[in-house]
Design a protein that fits this description.
Number of strands: 10
Radius of gyration: 37 Å
Oligomer: single chain
Length: 206
């Protein structure tokens, strides 16, 4: 009987130890998990671009003479993909087209901005197009001051300065003119397209 009692006691002690280990493994120290919400909202750099004035010197359809038309002050949203900067039908030496453009800062980020002309980026223009581009003069002005002037085939970027968040709208003008020179005949029956691009880069220094 003594051996049996010792065996039972050893068995009970073994079971108790196993239970103690099981309980110790199951119930650890009190713990919890906290989530701290950190909200970050990126600022926006958004440029608004509108044509607020348009005037041209072009051929009169009735007599073929060059005439200056009345200034059109209809606002055109140039951000719209269907919009056009210049409405040109037939261009001859002496014609010019001038658009007044309003720039707005619709975001909350200050930026430096400017204007560039995009043309013949693939370098595949034909001879007639090249001849015409050599005779189209582009003039960029702001605040009554000429900021840059170049021929279309030698286009450069024209910086127009800083635009701070909350600032008033700014304006500049773009004028495209078919210059009168000795090479005009080489561009007869030519046609081409070019794009005006307003670029903006976040301003980081005061």
């Amino acid at each position: 009987m003594g051996k049996r009692i010792r065996a039972v006691i050893v068995a009970l002690v073994t079971i108790c130890l196993c239970l103690a280990l099981l309980l110790g493994a199951t119930y650890a120290l009190f713990s919890d998990c906290f989530t701290v919400n950190n909200h970050l909202q990126a600022g926006t750099l958004q440029v608004g671009l509108e044509r607020i004035g348009y005037q041209s010197r072009e051929l009169d359809e009735t007599n073929g003479m060059l005439v200056v038309g009345e200034k059109d002050t209809t606002m055109v949203d140039l951000v719209d993909d269907t919009s056009v900067l210049f409405d040109v039908n037939t261009i001859v030496p002496g014609c010019w087209y001038e658009a007044e453009i309003r720039v707005r800062n619709f975001g909350d980020v200050a930026f430096d901005y400017g204007v560039r002309i995009l043309w013949n980026e693939d370098n595949d223009a034909e001879a007639l197009e090249l001849a015409l581009a050599d005779q189209i003069q582009i003039t960029i002005s702001a605040g009554g001051v000429q900021k840059g002037q170049f021929m279309l085939d030698d286009a450069v970027d024209i910086d127009l300065g800083a635009f701070y968040a909350g600032g008033d709208a700014q304006t500049f003008t773009v004028r495209a003119e078919f210059t009168d020179n000795s090479n005009n005949n080489a561009a007869q029956n030519a046609g081409l397209e070019f794009d005006l691009q307003v670029y903006a880069l976040q301003k980081t220094n005061a």
